[in-house]
Design brief:
Helix content is 55%, strand content 0%. It has 13 helices and no strands. It is globular, with a radius of gyration of 21 Å.
């Protein structure tokens, strides 16, 4: 199908699919479920699998992700030659799969762990399990050719994350036409906030020094510098005191800070910042979907909206499994509690 014609068809199909997505106002429905079987019926409207309750929560997460990927790839396949930005988005799951495989092999597990199936859109040969070198051969991550030692696993995972960011940034820079700047702005904001949230976590929860944190930042250039379009804003906050509100009150993203009350001890809350970002990213993606119909950008936005839905479903399932208070689970998912 000719690209513009396919884009019209894709947009119509994608719009229809968003009608039943559990985000925005509909997200709160997930937290009305009082049991995992009830949540399954609400999300999938199919018979609940006959498996132990201890495994049902994980199955819900896996099925939600599987449905999302199947829907997305069905949309991409409507193009004879989909643009790189659309197919490269899926590499996020290849990266996550590779982390799971590496961890399983490091632990000397015999069975292949659960992975997200990407079919022809994967850059790896999962059929070569357990030979990690053959799995990654001829891919951009062919350097990952041996099982990582348990002590280097975190470093390798960070390297994988950073390579994905760089791959997507390169793909975004290859976009041409009227959506080029909106695409670049969207991915720049996404990766800037990812770096900022990582920095806050490492700074507050692990009390890492600035030099250590720099090693975890993804950047467009060779090293994280203040001038880097993706890492720069995170580098700029390294010297801010986590417990001094005055250091943050004029920050570019101050509207994401947890509330401050004069005279009350305050410390920046990475979870608060992250939840505020997630809610804002959903609204940004939703707006972008409608603002750029019949373009690749609308499908990029659709991908992010559905990822957000999977995160909310995961949180709802975990909340039920761990018997977390409903209001607390919703807060953790970045969803305003429903006023009774």
């Amino acid at each position: 199908m000719e690209y513009s014609g396919a884009s019209a068809f894709v947009y119509a199909k994608a719009s229809g699919m968003l009608g039943s997505v559990f985000t925005g106002p509909r997200a709160s429905k997930l937290f009305t479920a009082k049991s995992l079987p009830e949540l399954w019926m609400l999300v999938f409207n199919t018979e609940v699998p006959l498996i132990p309750q201890t495994l049902l929560g994980q199955r819900i997460e896996e099925e939600a992700e599987k449905r999302f990927i199947a829907q997305y790839t069905s949309l991409v396949e409507m193009y004879d030659y989909p643009h790189k930005i659309l197919t490269d988005m899926l590499y996020f799951y290849d990266i996550e799969n590779l982390k799971e495989l590496g961890a399983a092999l490091c632990a000397k597990e015999q069975s292949m762990p659960h992975i997200v199936e990407l079919g022809k859109y994967s850059m790896f040969d999962y059929g070569a399990w357990p030979d990690i070198a053959k799995i990654t051969k001829n891919s951009p991550l062919s350097w990952y050719n041996k099982v990582p030692d348990v002590h280097e696993q975190q470093h390798i995972d960070t390297k994988l994350d950073n390579q994905y960011v760089r791959m997507m940034w390169e793909a975004a820079n290859e976009v041409t036409g009227e959506i080029r700047e909106p695409v670049l702005d969207f991915f720049r904001y996404t990766f800037v906030m990812t770096n900022i949230i990582w920095t806050l976590r490492l700074k507050v929860y692990y009390e890492m020094k600035s030099d250590e944190i720099l090693e975890h930042l993804a950047c467009a250039g060779d090293r994280p510098l203040r001038s880097d379009p993706l890492a720069g804003p995170a580098v700029e906050i390294l010297d801010k005191a986590a417990d001094t509100y005055a250091d943050w009150e004029h920050w570019k993203y101050a509207d994401m800070l947890n509330p401050h009350e004069e005279g009350v001890i305050w410390k920046i809350d990475p979870r608060w910042v992250e939840n505020t970002y997630k809610s804002g990213m959903y609204r940004r993606a939703e707006k972008m979907f409608h603002a750029h119909p019949l373009t690749d950008l609308s499908l990029v936005a659709w991908f992010k909206i559905k990822q957000h839905e999977c995160d909310i479903i995961r949180t709802a399932a975990e909340g039920i499994r761990l018997n977390v208070d409903t209001a607390e689970a919703m807060k953790f998912a970045g969803i305003p509690a429903v006023v009774q």
